[in-house]
Every structure is written in C-alpha cells, then in structure tokens.
Amino acid sequence: MGESQLDYHLSVSHGHEFDEVWAINAMAGIARQVDKTFMLDPASRFLDTDDAGSQTHLMKKVLKEHPGPIYTCELDDRCDNLVEFPLLDVVKETGSSYLNNTVAFAVAFAMYNRVGRINMFGVDFTYKGNLHFAEAGRACVEFWLSKCISAGIVVSVAPRSGLLDTDLPIQEKIYGYHRLDNPPVILFDPDTGDFYKTGHKEYVHSIEEENRKNAKVIPILDTPPEAKRY
After folding, report:
1. 47-77, pLDDT tens digit by residue?
2. Is 143 helix (H, G, I), strand (E, B) or coil?
3. How far apart, in whole angstroms, are the C-alpha atoms of residue 179 and residue 203?
4. Domain co-membership, 204 together with 127
5. Which residue in 21, 24, 82, 190 has its CB near the most CB atoms, within 10 A?
6. What pTM was estimated for this model as a whole?
7. Are 129 and 150 found together in one domain?
8. 176: left (phi over 0), alpha (psi -120 to 50) or beta
C-alpha cells in the first residue's frame, strides 16, 4: 500500500476508532484491527508460487492465521477463512463490472452493502515502475468512489493520497482557475450540507484569523480542513 497508510496509523494512535477496518492483501497482517480482507488473487498464488514477491511470506501467514473473512476469487481447501466474492450479485446491484484491481472490488463491495462512510488510506497508486498500471488502477477506484458519492456515501481520503487529487494544494485543485491571482476555493459546509466558494486569499486569511482567535500557532498547509478528518 502507499505512503498514505501512515495517516491510518496516525489516526489510530490518536485514538480514532472505525466501525470496521477492511484490508487489502498483506495489510491484513499489519493493521491492528481487520474485520474484512480482500485478496482477489487465488490463494495458490501465495501458497504455491513467489509471484507476489515481497508480499508472499506475510500473505502465507495471513492465510494461515487470519480469522477472516478473506474475500477472493476462488476457495482453497487449505484455507478455511476464505469467502468467494459475490461477483455477480455485486455487479447486478451496482450496475458495473469495471473491476481491474483489488481496491476497486473492496469499494464496490462497500457500495453493494450500502455503507454510510468510506475512509480511504494507503490507496495512492504511486507505482513509478508501471505508470500504466498505476493510472488504470487509480481511474477504476476513482470511478467506484464517484459511484459511492452519487449513492450518498460519504467518502474521505487520507491527506497524503493523490486519490481524487486530495494531496494537491487547495488553490490548485480546479484546473484553469489555478492560474488566476486569487484562485477560487470550493469548500463544504457540514452545517448546511452544501458547497460554497471563496477566494484562496480569503481562505488563508480566515484560517489565520481562526488560529489567532484560538491562540494556536498552526502552519497553513493549503489543504481544506476536511482533508484532515479521519
């Protein structure tokens, strides 16, 4: 997983709790609490080959010790914690079979189960050695996140992640406008449940004023406050 998994560990160390934690592949052997794991490769890839590289050793341990469920593409008699992913049911319910990576399966499963909120950590697609794989995977996951948002599911992305351009400075998020002297900033007001627009300079000023009012010394990082919420 990508660097933004650190935001998950940071949030947990600060006492944040989640209703459920879903892991992708070997993260099931790293995260403290894992309720569901998604491993769409067959177990034989890890048990019988070294094709998964550095993940192989930990995945063998996960397959042996994790209580499950581990959602995968086929069952294996050597692992009693595997559950076959309900592929056809998910496709029929969500209306799409665009599933080119394991994370996309997990997001589609969340939509299928009509969860209320998704917090994404470690999903960065920063594969410098395989840019096509990175771009294809990110596009697919963002497609599913868009479907979830349209379905009324709240989606939050870790601040370090490039997913949905979350890690971009707030004044650079809207193309074209980012070239203006005072780019517009689009923010979400949780009290009204609606979006509103302000200028970047006004946004920075409002944050500085809020910091002074609260007697806090906090550097401006040019990221929206909601991006820091886990």
Report:
1. 888 887 888 889 898 898 888 899 999 999 9
2. helix
3. 17
4. no
5. 82
6. 0.82
7. yes
8. left
